[in-house]
Amino acid sequence: MRVLVGLCLAFSFVTAGCVGNVGTSQTGDQPDDPPQGDDDDDGSTPAPEPAQLTITRFEVASAASTDDYEPNDATAFYLGGYGFEYTIDDATIAPTHLTYTVEVTNSGGPVTSPFNVEFFRNSPVAPSNQLGDVREEIPALGTGESAEIVFDVTNADPGALQSWAAADVSNVIPETDENDNVSTAVAAAVADDVDVFSVFQTAGYPLTIGLSQLPANYDLELIGPSGNVLARSANTGTSSESLSGTVGADGTYKIRVYGNGSARSATPYRLVITVP
Ligand SMILES: [Ca+2]
Ligand SMILES: [Ca+2]
Ligand SMILES: [Ca+2]
Q1: What ligand is nearest to the CA atom of residue 95?
Q2: Quick one: which of 21, 39, 20 has its CA closest to 31?
Q3: Of the ligands numbered here, which is closest to the C-alpha atom of 50?
């Protein structure tokens, strides 16, 4: 009999017709009571107000540790003519450091459990329900509060980057709007650092180039007066590079120092060019 009474009570909770007018404050959202008289829910704790997360700021700052030798192939750094040995030991193949700052704001109910902010390093289109390259956790975020997160890219690949940030991609925080959690895109143009030096030499005379004290895998090229690559030295790792030969024509010869792949460092290399 007690079971039947309990069932009747439970039924009356979810069907307004059973108990008549239950009042406008009852939203039909009542928990399903167990059949036994469990009064714990009689106080009817209101459903928590959903959170509302958005990315309110997303920006990038770029810092390249430049040296005095940042020309390109067309504007090589001219050292001089024959009869000398030139030593450069303050040049670098400089990494570019990108610092992305993300601000997440909660304009809804309090967030009391952790959620992640994703960072997408380079994507041509806005990410959609996918995880980023890296992420940071925000442990909690009260109503009206903002949190700032920094993502560092210490050696960005040269080229054009389009980056994004997104809050709570895994949907662990219920929100009033689940579709406004992706930032706008932020663009960064990362210049490649190739160091090009030039010397003048006359036909029939030697030219010797040594690249050493390498902090990363750098390679070396010799470009002739007509713009052709005459020789290349590309050993693996931090092994030194060297080129030596007799030039075939009068003219300006370019020596090109560049990082193999993503090899870069703020530590200088040593380049010795002998033009006897
Ligand atoms: Ca949202
Ligand atoms: Ca440089
Ligand atoms: Ca090398």
Answers
A1: 2
A2: 39
A3: 1
pLDDT tens digits, one per residue of 25-83? 444 445 455 555 455 555 677 788 999 999 999 999 998 777 778 777 778 899 998 89
Kindly provide the b/e burial profile for residues 49-77, where b requires at least 16 CB atoms within 10 angstroms of the residue's own CB.
eebbbbbeebebeeebeebebbbeeeebb
Whether residue 17 has pLDDT greater than 50: no
Question: What residue ranges do the domains of the chain occupy?
Answer: 2-43, 53-60+96-190, 69-94+193-275
At 12, is the secondary structure helix, strand, or coil?
Answer: helix
Top-level class of domain 69-94+193-275: mainly beta
**Environment class of residue 172 by beta-carbon count within 10 Å: exposed (0-12), middle (13-18) or buried (19+)?**
exposed
Taking 60 as the threshold, does the pLDDT of residue 163 lie above it? yes
Q: Is the pLDDT of residue 150 over 70?
A: yes
CB-based burial label for 115 (10 Å; 0-12, 13-18, 19+): buried
* DSSP category for residue 64: E
Cα 200 to ligand 2 centroid, rounded to whole Å: 21
**Residue 42 alpha carbon to ligand 3 centre in Å:** 75
- Measured in Å, residue 71 CA sits from the centre of ligand 2 at 8
Q: Which of 168, 134, 150, 174 is nearest to 48 (CA)?
A: 174
Question: What percent of the chain clears pLDDT 90, i.e. is strictly above it?
Answer: 72
**What's the CATH class of domain 53-60+96-190?**
mainly beta
CA of 229 to the centre of ligand 2 (A): 20
- Which pLDDT score is estimated for 24? 37
Tokens of 228: 């052709």
